[in-house]
Amino acid sequence: MTTVVRRLAEIAADIRIDTLPSDVIDEAKRRLLDSLGSGLGGFHAEPSQIARGLAEDLGGNPEATIWGSPHRTSCERATLANATMLRYLDFMDSHAGSDPCHPCFNIPPCLAVAERVDASGRDLIAAFVAGYEIQIRFQDSCRVGPRGWASSTYLEFSVPLAVGKLLGLDLDQMTHAAAISACHSNTLYALCDGEIPACKSSADGMTAATGIVAALLAKRGLDGPLDVIEGKAGFVNAVAHSLDVDRLLAPATELRVMEVNTKWFNTVRIGQTAVTGVFAIFEANGLGWRDIESLVIHLPTGEHSSHVGVWDGESRLRPKNRDSANHSPIFSVAVAAVDGALGPEQYADGRLVDQDVLGLVDRIRLAPDTQLDPHWPEASVTRIELTTKDGRHFEETTLYPPGHSRNRVS
């Protein structure tokens, strides 16, 4: 019997550069450049320095580059260091869905393994396009967040299949690579709950590095449980609870890399649309943050129910670190309104205690809105309701912020 993980291996194997449309290849190059830029932006961050220093201490075969550094190390250690850099500023790409998904984390392992085997750029593109495809299919077919797992978990399938293409694995070996990886790489949502720890920056890199190791082990003949997804103790029962297998394995009408969003602001997806909406109200009506008496961020009910008590909890309203701050749509809107911009500088330590920002935080709240539900999760839609101190009332609904796949930027 053909198992689900075997079918996934076949889907990944069928993605070949000579059959990719030109627009997919162009978008893949954009994804690569966006990821490199985001990674280099996070180069000096403390988690990046820690991961880089560990890679240098451990040594390893000098086969893969640590981005921005003359140091080379083993492919899985380079992946951990590079993915940590990529994650830090929260500018990495995303895909819309009920669980968050950042498929760019297929790029660091593919780049590292491509260096190891001296692969061509054409092979590299086909590999990480396959990784994007598999990861996004899982995001669309199940939800692991409500079960206590972070969406980094989806990389346990996409990375070994993506790098398996570069390593020249046959279908049996690719199948076992994904099975081995899935047994060892589930990521707890504890990384995202409450005050966010610095190790969140390393979560995707840890999973991706394990995916590489799994592929290398499979190449040497190690096997894994072939019913790792649908089996009694497999992914569905132990992690996801339910899985739409038909959707997961559906024929590809358009490769999913074309649906990926570039982050215009380095905050959560709802923060993207909320900040865009506030700026639109300011510009159209000549307003500024000092005019605000109250501001309500209306969310789809699914988004609100998933994050009630988290996004408006104390750790996000009075964040103690930049990760908690940029994962707070309320804080992000407040600091963006006060500063007239939203980027890495807005999450610096001094901004976390600024009294103008915190005073505005106290005048902002989240609210569910059933009228927005038809657009979710394809669009991280918000409706901003702003009341001024002199009693005027303004509203702005934003479906697609700049950088969304339906509102592309140059």
List keywords for this structure.
6 strands, 18 helices, two-stranded antiparallel sheet, four-stranded mixed beta sheet, alpha+beta, 410 residues
How would you portray this structure in words?
The protein contains 18 helices and six strands. It has 410 residues and is of the alpha+beta class. A hairpin with a 6-residue loop joins strand 1 (64-65) and strand 2 (72-73). Helix 1 (4-13) packs antiparallel against helix 6 (121-141), helix 1 (4-13) crosses helix 8 (171-184) and helix 5 (107-117) runs antiparallel to helix 6. The relative contact order is 0.12. The chain has a four-stranded mixed β-sheet with strand order 4-3-5-6.
Order of helices and strands: HHHEEHHHHHHHHHEHHHHHHEEE
Helix content: 40-55%
Q: What is the average of the pLDDT values?
A: 96
Q: Structural class of the helix and strand makeup?
A: alpha+beta
- Beginning-to-end CA distance, first to last residue: 47 Å
Estimated radius of gyration: 21 Å
**How many distinct beta strands?**
6
Share of β-strand residues: 5-15%
Q: Give a quick account of the main beta sheet: strands, pairing sense, barrel closure.
A: 4 strands, mixed
Q: Order of strands across the biggest sheet?
A: 4-3-5-6
Q: Uncertain regions: pLDDT < 50 for 5+ in a row?
A: none
Shape: globular
Count helical runs.
18
